[in-house]
Amino acid sequence: MTATVDAPPSQLSPVRFHQVGKAFGSGRKAVVALDGVDLEVGAGEFVCLLGASGCGKTTLLNLVAGLDRPTSGRIELNSSRPAVVFQEAALMPWLTAAGNVELPLRMAGVPKAQRRAKAAELLELVRLAGLGDKRPHELSGGMRQRVALARALASTTDSADAGKPSLLLMDEPFSALDAITRDVLQGELLRIWRATGTAILFVTHDVREAVRLGQRVVLLSSRPGRVVRQWDVEDTPDAVDEINIALRKVISSHAAA
Ligand SMILES: Nc1ncnc2c1ncn2[C@@H]1O[C@H](COP(=O)(O)OP(=O)(O)OP(=O)(O)O)[C@@H](O)[C@H]1O
Ligand SMILES: [Mg+2]
């Protein structure tokens, strides 16, 4: 008899898609957003998901986040509860920055002193130390995204899931920001990713952003979205050019359909 050695939970892939499909509605009016998607994000890995508008990127993130269910296939989740950062920060306007970061901890039943300390630590990590008592309307767009990031990190550090790899889902989080702020926040996100070791699945339609941030770039076809190609960024010398050509092909094949 052979003994199987299971990988420790911290080394399991936080998420794995097996032939995942998602259709909205049914019958002739059904919109097939995703079809036969196979995708894996490794523990601590930074994966960027790229594709034309409407190809199903947000749908895919929503499935991982548990906000929606696949209509076919299976999603294997091996992480603490995934946290999402959206294009707009979606902060609670009546709460301070610190209050927003504390919210997921409060919902998880973390005692007050402990969540205060955690929120302060996370606000420092996103370089907002000293601004914890500001309300969202008093902050710039970039600062609000920093708060949203800190809040997402707070919700991935749920003690009930200790030991499991964490997973952060980001849906075009910087696309509403000006170019300089976006550049700064991309650098900050890389620093935070290295510091925390969390896996990140990051949606963008900006090839440069995908190549700067991701270790791996995954290209989805136009609707229905399926994985067309993947690149290991380190092993691809002209990644930006190469991926741009592939993305343009995907978009033009859709326009011609
Ligand atoms: N709740 C829904 N009900 C019906 N159709 C939906 C729903 N959500 C998404 N869709 C459809 O599924 C397809 C994929 O949408 P999705 O938002 O995932 O695209 P996307 O790749 O995120 O696009 P973008 O880059 O513009 O954000 C679209 O055709 C969209 O109209
Ligand atoms: Mg989207």
From TrEMBL:
Domain ABC transporter stretches = 15-247
PROSITE patterns documented for this protein: ABC_TRANSPORTER_1, ABC_TRANSPORTER_2
Keyword annotations:
ATP-binding, Nucleotide-binding, Transport
> Domain of life here?
Bacteria
InterPro entries to which the protein is assigned, alphabetical: AAA+_ATPase, ABC_transporter-like_ATP-bd, ABC_transporter-like_CS, ABC_transporter_ATP-bind, P-loop_NTPase
Write down the Gene3D superfamilies for this protein, in alphabetical order: P-loop containing nucleotide triphosphate hydrolases
GO MF annotation list: ATP binding; ATP hydrolysis activity
Pfam families found in the cross-reference section: ABC_tran
Q: Can you say what this protein is called?
A: ABC transporter ATP-binding protein
